[in-house]
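target protein:
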Amino acid sequence: MEIPYAESFRIKMVEPIRRSTREERECWIKDAKYNLFALRSDHVFIDLLTDSGTGAMSDRQWSAIMLGDESYAGSSSYFNMKKAIKDILGFDYFLPTHQGRAAENVLFSVLVKEGDVVPGNSHFDTTKGHIEFRKATAIDCTIDEANDTQNEHPFKGNIDLGKLEEVFKKYPKEKIPFVCVTVTCNTSGGQPVSMQNIKDVHALAKKYDIPLMFDSARFAENAYFIKKREKGYENKTIKEIVREMFKHVDMMTMSSKKDAIVNIGGFTAFRSEELFRKASTFNIMFEGYITYGGMSGRDMNALAVGLDEGTEFDYLETRIKQVEYLGAELDKYGIAYQRPVGGHAIFVDALKVLPNVPREEFPAQTLGVELYLESGVRGVEIGAILADRDPVTRENRYPKLELLRLAISRRTYTNNHMDVIAASLKNVFDRRDSIKRGFKIIYEAPIMRHFTVELDRA
């Protein structure tokens, strides 16, 4: 008999979670103005809002926390983090920040100015927010296959080289501060970028003398998919693949709350000492001194260990197999999601699950609310609310994909929880014909509205 698969860890500590009643959830979501972000965490049974900072740290990471050096300048924890970044990613220069969006703020303060364009593959919400806040424009150059959730293309995060070159030809290079490649590409469904595409984008950017940047929050999961799906990499270690990925880029930002498996922290890293020095000024203004940048020493220590653990195959296989397990359960019920399964989440195709809800009433948000009401499972909308308004016309933007993201925390839930999620979605799917109305916006912020939006029934 073939030995079945089992997780590559044991559980040392547990945290109680409570099942609520539907009547309670109806009151709580109404009080939250139907914004899933506004719910209290103790009003949620299974929390799939994000995989950012919600993972379970290892015994090695907790041990490293106890050895944190809290010196204001030049702490040993900083040098532990510096060594991990050099050894794993290959960068000599870096600045710690308190999280990924802070790293974007520091880097973009140097590079992005009014009137610029930043091409990339489906920029993440904070990335686009930082670009548009500076009155620049994010241009999506993702391959068209990413827009068909049922297409099994193995690397839907890839950049379309033709689209990218059109941007290079249309705008002077002085207006293009860099190309942003998100690995894996969250907004298009947690989809990876192939090594060949990374090489091709690098070559094209070099031809036009444009720097290349990685948004690296889930770089290790991207390397896992390269190993599993791209010919020639099946016998390479994750760390070998990572080093090859990063040797093609000039700079990077990272929210370490994902693939470094920490609760807080991030950084931006550079090849150029000159760029590092320019960014240091903004790091000191916005974050803290250049050897702590908004992080405690204990968290820098945990991050250094997490970079090492997060780039090991056994850990990644356990992590991604759980996401695949949930996908397989949804397949049994005929529930459409972005295929193939991504690295950190299942992205349910709300337009297929709730076909009767008009686009202007936000089907993905409607699906998220219905799922919460069903069983206390909290996801997050990746659709028209997140897409925000056009900064010029102020009209709602309706992306080609209208998704409900179910982000799986690392080393946190069991497959029994995945069964609850799948059954809950099936129950919503079974009554889809009765769900014909969604929501209307009654309050929104001028940018990145999805975090604080207030809604009412349409």
Q: What stands out?
A: The chain has 16 helices and 14 strands. The first helix runs from residue 22 to 31.
